[in-house]
Amino acid sequence: MKNIKAKNMNPSNKIMRAAIFYGPQQVRLEEVSIPNIDSDEVLVKIRAALTCGTDRKMYLRGHHLFNPPFVFGHEFSGDIIKVGKKVRDFEPGMRVTAANSAPCNHCFYCKKGDFNLCENLYIHLSGAFAEYIKVPAAIVAQNLFSIPENVSYKEAALLEPLSCVVHGIEESNINLGDTVVINGAGPIGLMYLQLARLRGAKVIIADQLEERLKLASKLGAYKTINVSKVKNPVEEVKKITEGGRGADVVIEAVGLPEVWEQSISMVRKGGTVNLFGGCERGTKISIDTSLIHYSQINIKGVFHYNPQQVKRAFNIICNKIIDIDALITYEFPLSEISTVIEMMLAHKGIKIAVIP
Fold first, then answer.
1. Which residues lie across from 77 on neighbouring strands?
2. Would you say 31 and 16 are in contact if contact means Cβ atoms under 8 Å apart?
3. Fold exhibited by the domain 15-163+305-355
4. Predicted TM-score of the model (pTM)
5. CA-based angle 66:23:96, to the nearest 5?
6. Which end of the chain is least crowded, N or C, by CB within 10 Å?
7. For the segment 286-313, what is each residue's pLDDT rounded down to a tens digit?
8. Peptide bond into 297 cis (omega under 30)
9. CA 259 to chain CA centroid, nearest Å
10. Domain ranges of the chain
């Protein structure tokens, strides 16, 4: 597709369809105004949006970063329809994808290089389950990308979650030949599986859904564990690992306190535990202090991404380094968003593409 040189491609009307989140378990498809953009923003016609685990959690319990009502969803790609007069590097007709936030680059954490912990992490962009989305200036400047011709809209829409996984891989201390356990074979776990294998790891992946474990095997898992069919997942991991010592690295990609605790018990002495899955706010876990002290294990919380990790994730997508198509198991029009939510709640498939 050739870029269209006209400055703007205005929609024929000012109304769009969008899935509006009003509160936990309250999402309705409605007609709303197409967003207006400022001089440093762009308007994108969405061509593909993807579901994710955060959408599921948000639907069930809300999210502390977003005050209803707002347009649901945050993983998307599409075509630029309109650009502000101060925008220089993008123009109407360009195929684009974006991450959903950008750091301020001047707070305490940004100056330390911890951009994911930015005190002014603006803007957590929401609005993907709609016909159009406004991309704020900070994201236009740092985390908006032009999609090459060899990449589909659905592939490009994976940018945000893959950026988070790139961050997690970089924090997990995975070395060539390591045994890595991943708890959770959802989209995040399956992205972790593929990137961990690229680092030369032998990957064991655990989940309670056989459909997901079968896909994990196809994507190269060394062993799979169906936790609904074993008495003690921790003991199963130790049986598989050399000398019964446990894994070199354990990644939690579920977001449940009990799975956090199991993950900590699966790692060998001196190993690393990546607690990636976000649990409900206010929940707590119990840890045997001897595991931290005498076994000298490293426990890390891993959150979000920085702009460099977004760029690396984009390169992974553009170079077809992982199998993205395998992760997108269903496709529905925006008009069937209620069906999409039902399937997401029931853990059917891996990712669902919503096509406005």
1. 48, 97
2. yes
3. Quinone Oxidoreductase; Chain A, domain 1 (3.90.180)
4. 0.95
5. 50
6. N
7. 999 999 999 999 999 999 999 999 999 9
8. no
9. 19
10. 15-163+305-355, 172-301
